[in-house]
Amino acid sequence: MTLQVQAEKLEVAAGESVLLPETSFTLQAPGLIALTGPNGAGKTTLLKTLAGRQLPSSGQCLIGNLTAYEFDPAFRAAVASLIDTPPMARDMTLNEQLMLVRLSWGDDDDEARFGAEQCLARLTIPHLGDRFPYELSSGQLQLFALALTLSRPFEVLLLDEPERHLDAERVVALLDVLDQHVDRGALIITATHRQEIIDRNTHRIHLVRDAGS
Ligand SMILES: Nc1ncnc2c1ncn2[C@@H]1O[C@H](COP(=O)(O)OP(=O)(O)OP(=O)(O)O)[C@@H](O)[C@H]1O
């Protein structure tokens, strides 16, 4: 059966503040979905809720038949996300950290080494594998954060403005990598303000809200 991501009358509030007004949709894998809307519309909040990191105040969010909840191992196995900067080890090279992620998800040594190198190459930074995170520029750090996220298996990928700090050429490389994951059946939802990413998407969720609210 095709994997579905469903938001059913989803609303998130904190006290008197509404972080995400009532939102409903159904998305089917595979696909690349743009999540758009003005600043403060609720894009990050929606992604955190879909990632099972933020509990809704009402309604529900389902990935397949699983309620979004980050501490459920089955949910965690299906859903990867890059919403905040992921933890990075200061004293391990990029290759070592990417290998560690792959080994923890079941790769053997050779698969992990090859996968780490290939991932950096696809993201245009094959020459940085032996560097430490503090030796990277902001854009290179963002590419490494993406590499860490893409180094684990997933059926659903949630990205919050993955284009941040990236130049035009790097955005194209990232879109090519995301397309490869869509081609193998993944569903990717990405919050973005960049037109070239919106244009590349198969569908769009647009949250409407006053930026001042
Ligand atoms: N902890 C919080 N308490 C109260 N309100 C919050 C909290 N976090 C966010 N908000 C509010 O929730 C709304 C949605 O924020 P969110 O970060 O989801 O927006 P966004 O669409 O991702 O914005 P941007 O495009 O600027 O990244 C905003 O109006 C914001 O001010």
Automatic annotation (TrEMBL):
A molecular-function term among this protein's GO annotations: ATP binding
Pfam families in the cross-refs: ABC_tran
Database matches in SUPFAM superfamilies: P-loop containing nucleoside triphosphate hydrolases (SSF52540)
Record-linked InterPro entries: AAA+_ATPase, ABC_transporter-like_ATP-bd, ABC_transporter-like_CS, P-loop_NTPase
Superkingdom field: Bacteria
Domain called ABC transporter: residue spans: 5-213
Keywords of the record: ATP-binding, Nucleotide-binding
Coiled coil regions in record: none
Protein name per Swiss-Prot or TrEMBL: ABC transporter ATP-binding protein
Organism, scientific name: Nesterenkonia rhizosphaerae
